[in-house]
Design goal:
By secondary structure, the chain is mainly α. The chain contains two helices and no strands.
Length: 81
């Protein structure tokens, strides 16, 4: 798996969200550098878990869609002896 990275706009949004969380939930301020450092740490150490969960969710969705397709194909079968 490639390293999880974010563009400047995404990073700015994540920093803003993290700063808001720290302020509202922990009553602490966190600077932009510290927030970016924490985001990098979380991405490197926890990102793979979220990424893998997303893959499993996608696999489950594909399985469900394939089952729907199988049912649709079976409904097209012509009666035979």
């Amino acid at each position: 798996m490639d390293k999880i990275t974010f563009d400047n706009e995404e990073t700015a949004l994540l920093v803003h969200k993290l700063q808001g969380y720290f302020e509202s939930e922990l009553n602490q301020e966190i600077g932009q550098f510290d927030a970016e450092f924490l985001i990098d740490f979380l991405s490197e150490n926890l990102g793979g878990y979220y990424y893998n969960r997303g893959l499993k969710d996608a696999q489950g969705l594909i399985r469900m869609k394939l089952e729907d397709i199988e049912v649709e194909i079976e409904s097209l079968e012509m009666p035979t002896d």
